[in-house]
Task: structure prediction
Amino acid sequence: MFREYDIRGQVEQDLTPEAIDLIGRGYGAFLAKRGVKKVVVGYDAREYSERIKNTFARALASTGVDVVDVGMVLSPILYFAQYHYKFKGGAMITASHNPNGWSGFKLGYDLATTLLPDDIAEMYQIIASGKFPKGRGQIRKRTGIIDAYTKQVLSRIKLARPMKVVVDAGNGTAGPIAPPILRAAGCQVIERFCDLDYSFPNHEPNPTLVEVLEGLGQAVVKNHADLGVGYDGDGDRLGTVDNLGGSVWADKVIILLARSILKKYPGSKIVFDVKCSDALPEDVLAHGGVPVMWKTGHSYIKQKSNEVDAALGGERSGHIFFRRDYYSYDDAIFASLKLLEYLSREKQTLSEILKTLPQYVSSPTWQVDCADEVKYGVVEKLTKEFKRDYGAKQVIDINGARVKFPNGWGIVRASSNLPVLVLGFEAKTKKQMAEITAIFKKKLLKYPEIGKKWKSG
Result:
């Protein structure tokens, strides 16, 4: 359950009432060491999320922490609430894009800050010690945070012309929240799976799955929309398709947003993760920016963006962080609005603009089963093999192994929140990409710990 930068597990199997109580008390003790006395708490739209929130909040209050419950919200709205109420503590009960039956905690101890591996390890040790402070914190409910969030987001957006957009919320938390905001910004919105349904009957709340983007693309073409956007279960990841229904991976969205930001803030740093296309650093350099590659993971990208004072940070998974004229946290609704604002000022369609980017053929992000207990060891062995076979200079190992070839690259890394390995490939042609993919598949077949079936993730 205690993963690199958050806590996730299966409800009742891992996240029992007893475990949730311990997590709440452990978090309270963690905050006490930092002098944090107040926490804002929210939860996503899953059948069990409110029950988990209630148990967690009671445990947290028992350590002397005051809790403000803002109800069912998106993760970026929870982060905004920290600023709005001036609370350093923030706790979001969410399984993010994981399937039904999962839940978890995204925890913070300062504004635009979520736990990193050392913090998670410290909290685990606190829980293992069983030593928790005792107190009588208050639990209060506050309403109106979604309205406050909506007002501040809209104050930062101005479309040059009306835009037509299809919105796919995957029956998750963003469904009742995102469409009204986009309409208020001046968009004509066609809703797709925007009603709340805890069973996720249409697809998992993961906007970067190939099948999700294909369905969204078909809806865009059918409705003659300018683009389609999808949100994950807690609204901090963005999926995009263009006006022709083609999938637009988030690294390409980051390129367009970076172009816009670099006009206003020339010379700025742009942080991106190891799974992103070579097109991103090339285009950033071409537009006068400074590209900075870093580890995959929203907490890592957030930390690195703060460290180097980047104007923008982002991941291929769809987490996008604006650090100029915004709050520095990942917010898919705000990112989609900034993309719409950018497109509204351009004469070309999104599909036409994408042709101006450096051209590569990129695979989806692939996942293959590998148990949590062995996945990091397997990736370490694969990294050594790739260095041996292709030379250490050809392997970027800040997060798994990103192996450079004459015409492209491939990457394998351990997922931070699921028992899987994550892979991706890119080259100048489909044939070259297939050749790189085959090299990786041959390597993986040597390991019985690794599953045989690849799926998009």
Summary: The domain at 148-248 is CATH 3.40.120.10 (Alpha-D-Glucose-1,6-Bisphosphate; Chain A, domain 3).
